[in-house]
Amino acid sequence: MTSLIIILALLLLCIFLLFLPLEILILARISGNTDVRIRITYFFQLLNWEFQLTGKKKNKPQARKGLEKKRSSWISRLYNLLQVEGLWNSIWTLITRLKKGVRIEDISADAKFSLGDDYYTGMMTGLILPLVLILGQSVKGEINLQPIFEEDLMLEGQLYSDILIRPIKVLIPCVMFACSPSFWRAGRKWIQK
Description:
This protein is an alpha+beta fold. The protein has helices at 2-19, 64-81, 87-98, 118-138, 167-178, 181-192, and strands at 22-31, 33-42, 47-56, 102-114, 141-147, 154-165. Helices cover 48% and strands 32% of the residues.
């Protein structure tokens, strides 16, 4: 009997923890060197985790041609993957369901980017810009995104974001998306290539 009570108490504790908000603070600076700091606060700020990711820009002109070919093939693979029937509907459903569990308290971003090819830079701008405009009107903060069509592959900018997540309201839509047939078709298509 006591083991049943302990199991039920642990189950209730896990359910209780899924309903508590999780706060994520992201500070990123990308310009030659990459500096990303992420702070996660949970359980009434009793649990704090802080991560710092840093990296330096690598200049290797000899291997650059092969690298650009790999990147452009990766982008074209991603574009072909997004053409899977029903995947956009599943992604849109996931986004609308995640809006209930994720609340962006504040966001400030200023970025310049180029994918090295005018075609892919324009395509990515066309995909991202509507989302940036919607996000800029619905949350507090300011987002500036500037595509550069004359440069090689680059990303420069700064990002500050304060996000509040309800784990239970994020976990269920993500599991539903992962179980959708379009996600599995896209996964098979990604593995085959």
